[in-house]
Amino acid sequence: MTWNALLSFVLLCLLLNITPGPDTFLILRYALRDVRAGIAAGIGSSMGYLLWAAAIGLGLAALMEQSATAYRIVKIAGGIYLLYLGVVALIRLRRAGGLAKDVMAVERRSLFPALGAGFMSTSLNPKVGLFFIAVVPQFLPAGHAHFMSTMLLGAISALCAALYLVALSLVANRAVAWLRRPKVTKALERTSAGVLAAFGIATLASATQ
């Protein structure tokens, strides 16, 4: 791969990352309460890119391109998971009296839930899968091992995603620290949870069309 091709691929990855989607709001939800959880969710999300790269390298993701049923199944699974995350977040806020600091105290015990949520969100995001199906093969060099080349591009895309999402977590947490008002924090928590649920509903609705 030439340097120009590599730069073009990196720019496409960054464009995919900065486009608002479920991962963005998931990282914001965690970062608003604890920057470490936001970073963990961002790293988990970037690990999902490696899973998609492996699927491309093994030829499994081609099923989504050839089978409308397989694509619909991934969309339904992703929609259900996003809806679950949003609803659970809203329920926890309600039980905690709408105070983000109480929810944070409960979930700060372990970063694995945030890491797993980020990983599952990307792994079940069909748009990321389509990006790998449509874009990655165009950058695979001829005459090289297909799987290793695909994993290298997957690692590059994962690194781009990690850098962007970690930066997003830091900025979001700093913003909340600057606006440390209970009403503002509660409103942001509810908004991010509601957007996750809305993404889930929209994904499920599009999967039935």
From TrEMBL:
Keywords: Cell membrane, Membrane, Transmembrane, Transmembrane helix. This is Threonine/homoserine/homoserine lactone efflux protein. GO terms for molecular function: amino acid transmembrane transporter activity. It is a multi-pass membrane protein. PANTHER family: ARGININE EXPORTER PROTEIN ARGO, ARGININE EXPORTER PROTEIN ARGO-RELATED. InterPro entries: LeuE-type (IPR001123). The keyword Lipid metabolism does not apply. The chain crosses the membrane at residues 6-28, 40-64, 70-91, 111-135, 147-171. GO terms for cellular component: plasma membrane. It is found in: Cell membrane.
